[in-house]
Amino acid sequence: MASKTGVFSGLLLLLFAGCEVKEPIAPVWDVELNLPFVNRTYTMKEIVERDTSSLKLRSDTAIIVYEQTQELNSVKIENRMTLDAETKNIKTTVGAIKVNTVASISDEIKMTQWLNVTPGQQQVVPAVSNTLVVQDMKKITSFEVAEFDAGTMSLKIRNENGPVSMTISRVIIRAAKNYSYRGATIAENTRLLTDNTTFTLNQNQERTLVFALTGQKLVDSLRVEVLLSSPGSGGNTILVPANPVTKITADFANLGVSGVKAIIPQQNPIVKSDVIKIDDSTQYTQIKFDSGKLDISVKNSIDMPLQVTITVNELRKPDGTNFSQVVNVPAKGTGTFSIADMKNYSLNSGGVLKNTVTYQASAVNTVQPGVTSTLLSSDSLVSTISMNNLVISTITGKVKPVQLRVVESNIGINLKDLQGKFKFGKLDLADSDIKLLVQKATSFEVRFTGKLRGTNGTQTAELDLPVTVMGAGLTTMKLDPVKVETFIASFQNELPNTMTVVGVTTLNPNYKEGTADMVDSVYGMARLDFPLHVGITNGSFTDTVAVEFSSDDSSKIANSNTADITMKIENGMAAGVTLGGKFVDGNYNYIMNMIPKNTGNDSLVVIPGAAVGPDNKVITPTNKDILIKLVKNDFKNFTRVKYLIFDMKVNTSKPNASPVKFYPLDKLKMRAFGKFSYKVDPGE
């Protein structure tokens, strides 16, 4: 056995000794590499979850709803409840004038004033005929000058001249001195009263003359002028009394003074009340004011100072007490009083619905000892009350219908670009539900009128809101879906991204009784509820996906020069898809179309929508395979690709883009993989 081994070894040595030894050469062969580089599924649920602020899921099997809720700007009553109170002038006159009691005044005409006799002696008394006798009366202390609209002065004449008769044929009452009264002069001896009655008075007889004073004037110093005749003693000697006189006594009764110049005593209060209308329409049982001004002016044409007490029966001060105010008014002057801010003042009618207040002015004069004033019964006191800019804080009653204000509430919506992907060219909103849910704090009804205004930035359209009168509780204003559809259709190319509720609110439009506060408001929300039951024409969806290869795969692709790209698209949505796009590098620079325009390949691919059943749910998805062959420059460009940006145009499956429903699990699935050919060279 050993000899055989040795022989074999020797043969090998001879073999190798006779040959040149070289390095071995590795074989080279072609290899196909299949690499997936896009695998993406888009579900409606995913789209919804990207924008949970507007798209809502009821459940995984429920229909997708586009929902937007936005609080409306509240409309407060604020300073819209106002009163237009009339300015009222209330005039009152002094009326009956009180003077101090006019006492009787007496005086005597001595016999010696009209006969030449010696009192207390026996003598013959001569006869006289039509002798004028004048006697000044004692002074009246109650007035200096007075004029009367009622009353009498009684003048009693008594003969105490002894056994001598006298016949009086005329009595005149005159002013005993000069007077100034009401800008005129009453001169001395001015005739004031006259009596032409003829009568005879025997010894100790008396006669009373009654003078009506209506329309007459008297002064404090009166002069009595008597025209008399006497037969004397008839030639006989008689004893003349020691004090022969004719006594004169004046009494005053039932005086009605219409004017006086005097030291004015305390008068009866001058009282006047009237009703002031605070508004033509607003009626109240209670009102509290937020602001306003009360001005009271008292003009005094009377020649004496007054204290005027002003009351408004229904008006309450902020502390709840009745309003009463004393205004001091100078003689022939004006006094004023103002409440600059009536905040927290209130009116209380005592439960009776009314639109007036009762205003009263009560004036008393200030007595001025030693000061003479002139007073006429026709002298007036004019009080003016004005209530301006009255703003109601709270009211119970019937407030006049009043427009509060125009309010605008913007509702930011994403119909223009749902989460940045879908853009609708046409939208069928047959099942849309747009509601305004509003409430009010006041018990009064509120009428709401307005518009829904939409804009996409370049176009604006308006939709009239239904006129609604809000009663108690929540009021729902639902927009007619047909009108909504027409409204949306007026936008071309891009749907609105903002809607604005423009409304006008009117408080108490039907003039009913209730309660309101200026802080009460009309408030609520707008809810846009669009089920994705839409017809879409040329709606677009854009996304960017990474083209992902490992570094090892990338080096292999670099050795390739051709590739077959297969794209598999499964459309599980009720919308046809037109697909196109572009490949870009890491800086998003364009490299090539997603589907190059090689022979047999269009740059856009149409994938029909899935078949849907009667309930609009997808029953059979549509599949589409696309084969793309990349050679030469297209292939070289492809090796630099980092991202695929694709665009889908969406059209609903039903004829004429009729509406369909979208559900959360509706999906579009897209996969792409490539078959790359490259040479394997182990020596490299």
Q: Would you write up a description of this structure?
A:
The protein is mainly β and 684 residues long. The protein folds into 4 domains: 33-54 and 537-680, Protein of unknown function (DUF4621), C-terminal domain (Hypothetical Protein Tm1070, Chain: A, Sandwich); 65-79 and 408-531, Jelly Rolls; 88-93 and 268-371 and 378-398, Jelly Rolls (Sandwich); 105-262. The protein has 5 helices and 49 strands. Strands 4, 5, 20, 21, 22, 23, 24, 25, 26, 28 and 36 form an 11-stranded antiparallel sheet that branches. It starts with a helix and ends with a strand. The model is unreliable at 1-26, 58-62 and 416-428 (pLDDT under 50).
Outline the secondary-structure elements.
Blueprint: H1 2-17, E1 29-43, H2 44-50, E2 55-57, E3 64-76, E4 82-83, E5 88-93, E6 105-110, E7 122-124, E8 128-136, E9 145-160, E10 166-175, E11 179-181, E12 184-186, E13 191-195, E14 199-201, E15 206-212, E16 217-219, E17 222-230, E18 237-239, E19 245-262, E20 270-277, E21 283-300, E22 306-316, E23 322-329, E24 334-339, E25 346-348, E26 356-365, E27 373-376, E28 380-398, E29 402-412, E30 433-440, E31 446-455, E32 460-464, E33 468-470, E34 475-478, H3 481-489, E35 498-507, E36 514-517, E37 521-531, E38 533-534, E39 539-546, H4 551-558, E40 560-572, E41 575-584, E42 590-593, E43 605-607, E44 611-612, E45 618-620, E46 622-631, H5 632-638, E47 643-652, E48 660-661, E49 667-680
Antiparallel strand pairs: 1-49, 2-3, 3-37, 4-28, 5-28, 6-19, 7-18, 8-17, 9-15, 9-16, 9-19, 10-13, 10-14, 10-17, 11-12, 19-27, 20-26, 21-24, 21-25, 21-28, 22-23, 22-25, 22-26, 28-36, 29-35, 30-34, 30-37, 31-32, 31-33, 31-35, 38-48, 39-47, 40-46, 40-49, 41-42, 41-43, 41-47, 44-45
